[in-house]
Design goal:
Elements lengths: L28 H43 L5 H32 L37
């Protein structure tokens, strides 16, 4: 024996119209379940649309920020770190070379202040006057000139 029902609830032992069984009310429990399923589907679709819109807005804002950064000639942190590392290595190499020059000058007996001894009969040029109190500041380009 099979019990078949349709959306009106006819087959539930009543006439299906205005009866006082489970089919009475807002179209029955099946109808109510579909309403909430439809509502959940619409809400899920709305969340999907909002997530997509958010991703698009983030991409647009990121592009605008990059354009502004290029106009302001800003550099990326990675590029700055790389340039600072190159400058640090250059300073270390310069210091090492200065020590080697001093060692070679002391071996040759040459005074580091006046350069190599002039050969007889040749004209020697005096070095330019240098301020002994002047300090080079690697962060100030004007002090390196």
């Amino acid at each position: 024996m099979t019990n078949t029902t349709n959306d009106t609830g006819a087959g539930m032992g009543g006439s299906g119209m205005g009866g006082s069984g489970m089919g009475a009310g807002m179209g029955g429990p099946g109808r109510r379940g579909r309403f909430f399923d439809d509502l959940a589907g619409m809400a899920g679709g709305a969340f999907s649309v909002m997530a997509g819109a958010r991703a698009e807005i983030e991409a647009a804002v990121k592009a605008q920020v990059e354009i502004v950064a290029q106009k302001l000639e800003l550099v990326r942190r990675e590029d700055l770190d790389a340039a600072l590392e190159v400058a640090r290595r250059s300073r270390e190499e310069s210091s090492a070379l200065a020590l080697r020059v001093e060692a070679l000058e002391s071996k040759l007996g040459v005074s580091p202040k006046h350069g190599a001894p002039a050969a007889e009969g040749s004209s020697s040029v005096e070095p330019a006057a240098v301020d002994p109190n002047a300090k080079e500041d690697p962060t100030d380009p004007a002090s390196l000139a």
